[in-house]
Amino acid sequence: MRGQGQISRRLVVLVVVAGLLLAPAAAVDVQAVLAPFPDLAGFARLLASSPVARELAGRSSLTLLAVPNADLPQSPSAFAAAAGADLADVLRYHVLLEYLSPADLRRLPATGKLVTTLFQTTGRASADLGAVNVTAAGPSLGVVRSPAPFPGSNATVLGSVTSVPYNLSVLAVDGLIVPSGFDLAASESRPPAAVNITRVLADARGFNVAASMLEASGVAEEFEGDERGAGITVFVPTDDAFASLPAGDRLQSLPADRKAVVLRFHVLHSYYPLGSLESIVNPLQPTLATEYASQAGRFTLNITRSNGSVAIDTGVVQATITRTVFDQNPVAVFAVSKVLLPKEMFTRADSAAVVAAALAPPPAASNSMPPEPPESARTPPTKLSSPPALRGGARNDTAVSPPSSSTAKATAIGRWCIELLYVLPVLLPLV
């Protein structure tokens, strides 16, 4: 009996261990893991403003190569674009699909280890160029570089930041790494081309109305000159935002020059990445429309941080930034939840009902009162006791309109009162 009990306990232990080994690892909230480390705030913001954060939500057993604030390029988007890459793909190249602890790095062979990245899963990397080669390097924990035979960007592992054992390991590296196949060195000295905002919106999808309005108004052509200065920040309403405007809204009925004012009202004459907007010092910001205004202080936007997102108040509507569409110094483009209507042209009282009533056509002629006949055609009544309803006709063969229901009722009451006066003397002696 004792032997059978020991066998049973061993079986239970084996089942529990097997269950733990075979159970899927729980996904880790990368944003929550990075939150306690202010030195990685810039890198965390990049993840949050890109699709990569959502892609990591359902994964586990990862190694994240995070770049401290001091080692990030001044404009990560420009750094990626200069290499012909998309910033999201560069960030995916920093997500290794394998858990590597500092102890694992110290046990690396001399030839290094090839590790697949999240970029490899996009299908845009040829062969194994979506992987990185991690090798040991003297006193540092290791070096991460592309497996391509030709030189490319690389980064040194500075140390371990934190870890959630066997689910997520966060390692600090001394710079962004560009996937192989992008020519970073050849494009470093090339001046960046002006950004075609209309094309950016077309590629991003969901901004057809805004893109067509910019193109038709000619306002988009003004952006290139502004980019050369302090840069621009563009708030673009989505197609859903335009669709949610009241049916009687006056925006579409405005003349072309007034529509251009509204479009300029969506643009700040400075480059503000999302992090700068979140911590903006002066919330009241002038727009491109302010420069065209006759008085200073008009056509401004009140930009604040509210409930974890950036809120924009025009004095008529309140909108929020829903996502980053484009961020490459000196141009930032953000999607906003509503069309920004300036209070100088619109008011809160401009409800759909009021506008619809103002634009409604006049009532049909059939519902209007009949025209009054000319003075010569009017026929005075011949007797007080003969109301118009009892007449067979009028003098001079002039047709008389039938009386209204209220007139007939008043006449009937009058006749009833007269008849009552005749009957009362007969009834009173009987009472």
Automatic annotation (TrEMBL):
<feature type="signal peptide">
    <location>
        <begin position="1"/>
        <end position="27"/>
    </location>
</feature>
<feature type="region of interest" description="Disordered">
    <location>
        <begin position="362"/>
        <end position="407"/>
    </location>
</feature>
<dbReference type="InterPro" id="IPR036378">
    <property type="entry name" value="FAS1_dom_sf"/>
</dbReference>
<dbReference type="GO" id="GO:0098552">
    <property type="term" value="C:side of membrane"/>
</dbReference>
<feature type="domain" description="FAS1">
    <location>
        <begin position="27"/>
        <end position="177"/>
    </location>
</feature>
<dbReference type="GO" id="GO:0048354">
    <property type="term" value="P:mucilage biosynthetic process involved in seed coat development"/>
</dbReference>
<keyword id="KW-0472">Membrane</keyword>
<dbReference type="Pfam" id="PF02469">
    <property type="entry name" value="Fasciclin"/>
</dbReference>
<feature type="domain" description="FAS1">
    <location>
        <begin position="194"/>
        <end position="340"/>
    </location>
</feature>
<feature type="compositionally biased region" description="Pro residues">
    <location>
        <begin position="362"/>
        <end position="374"/>
    </location>
</feature>
<comment type="similarity">
    <text>Belongs to the fasciclin-like AGP family.</text>
</comment>
<dbReference type="GO" id="GO:0005886">
    <property type="term" value="C:plasma membrane"/>
</dbReference>
<keyword id="KW-0336">GPI-anchor</keyword>
<keyword id="KW-0449">Lipoprotein</keyword>
<keyword id="KW-1003">Cell membrane</keyword>
<protein>
    <recommendedName>
        <fullName>FAS1 domain-containing protein</fullName>
    </recommendedName>
</protein>
<keyword id="KW-0325">Glycoprotein</keyword>
<dbReference type="GO" id="GO:0009825">
    <property type="term" value="P:multidimensional cell growth"/>
</dbReference>
<feature type="compositionally biased region" description="Low complexity">
    <location>
        <begin position="398"/>
        <end position="407"/>
    </location>
</feature>
<dbReference type="InterPro" id="IPR000782">
    <property type="entry name" value="FAS1_domain"/>
</dbReference>
<dbReference type="InterPro" id="IPR033254">
    <property type="entry name" value="Plant_FLA"/>
</dbReference>
<keyword id="KW-0732">Signal</keyword>
<dbReference type="GO" id="GO:0009738">
    <property type="term" value="P:abscisic acid-activated signaling pathway"/>
</dbReference>
